[in-house]
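Sanity check

After download, print the first record. It should look like this:
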Amino acid sequence: MLDLNSIISLVDEAKRNSKKRNFIQSVELIVNLKGIDVKAPENRINEVVPLPNPIGREMKVCVIADGDLLTKAKQSEADLVISKQELEEYAGDKKAIKKLAETYDFFIARADLMALVGKIFGPILGPRGKMPDPVPPTANIENIIKNYRNAVRIRIRDQPVIKCKVGVETMDSKAIAENIMAVLTAIDRRIKLDQFLSSIVVKTTMGKPVKLKVA
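Expected structure tokens:
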């Protein structure tokens, strides 16, 4: 695994390569992999990674639930809580579902509602990589929401590449680097980076990319 200091240097260089803009730019991480079959199920990464440092804004979380979990989600101040009845009312309303997909970063659903969620929300949320993560009715929803507030989703689709936001340009470079290390650690649990990592790229929204090649 790469060391923190080399990642800090990469972030510093990305900042230097970025012109001042009239908005605060995001800092983006691109992890290029090599030699993996992206069609193999074991290489199809799609998971949420909690980060050690805030990335500029809290992620918005929508919970789909019923019963006690519904009540607890409301008490835990989820950004939106959808009941089973409300879920059924979304059926056929693509415009409303698209608005949900654009507004909320993460979706969580009670596990026994996932079949219904998949039927109604799947065609819209699926291609966006935002299908809800299932949780049991007894889940500690408050802790789950807290973890999602400062998290990113990492995903491999049809190319051996993972892209995600890891901070904003005004953050301390060490804090951004720690977020990057958290993402790399999560990837390494699924795909051994000492074998399959090709390069790491860091860039601001409109800045020049800086690449760290791996021998």
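If your output differs, re-run the checksum step. Summary of this record's structure: The beta strands are 26-33, 46-50, 61-64, 80-82, 106-110, 133-135, 151-155, 161-168, 197-204, 210-213.
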